[in-house]
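Human: I hope this is not a bother. Would you mind checking the protein record under this note? Thank you for your patience.
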Amino acid sequence: MRIATFNINGINTRLANLLAWLEEAKPDVVCLQELKATDAQFPAKAIEAAGYHAIWQGEHRWNGVAILSRDAEPVLTRRGLPGDAKDVQSRYLEAAVDGVLIASLYLPNGNPQPGPKFDYKLAWMERLNAHAAGLLETGAPVVLAGDYNVVPTEADIYNSRSWKKDALLQPESRAAFARLLEQGWTDALRERYPADPPPWTFWQYFRQAWERDAGLRIDHLLLSPAAAERLTDAGVDREVRGRERASDHAPTWIELD
């Protein structure tokens, strides 16, 4: 079972790229982030024609998450992260697919920091950690996949010199991510590539980042113990980032036995 996460950075703008990758890679499940489309604007017919069932939660211009499944239809289990009824941003979607509970999440960027956006990021991470702890208690195979907007360590970035003030690298962001792992989650890509550096998943559009391979690792698939024991492989389809009109992220994936 191949499960991928892909921040598409505008699903309608990048639809041709997405469909081409789906045809080539044939992942069983895909978690998408940053749809930048309302529910009505989601290209459901094109996704269906590509052979995928889909559930989604859109938002005008920003955010938006989806889960695609090639065989079994995803069974929605949660729409939105619990813990704050006033938070209406489309950042969390959860579904059961073929016996695995899978979440597509788009964690807040948090810039500029300090400020309200960074405060929202940290509060969102605390809510995620609380919900994740409850998921672990079920004992089920769970995959938390998405754009976490956190660079976990200095080894997960080409060079942090110009990123020192960025919310993705702040001690508070890293500490919250570390607390999540301490619950018992396995960082699949780091498990597969324990040596430094691991594969990058994101290259910004500026300063020829892609051409220089000046990348970061911010797209993560975290596995509960029941899922981690089934992990057989993980990787990044980095060539997708080099295509015309590409997202600034590359699809990141795992395979479960």
Notes: Helices lie at 15-25, 44-49, 116-137, 171-182, 188-192, 209-212, 225-228. The radius of gyration is 17 Å. The chain has a mean pLDDT of 97. The CA atoms of residues 186 and 228 lie 6 Å apart.
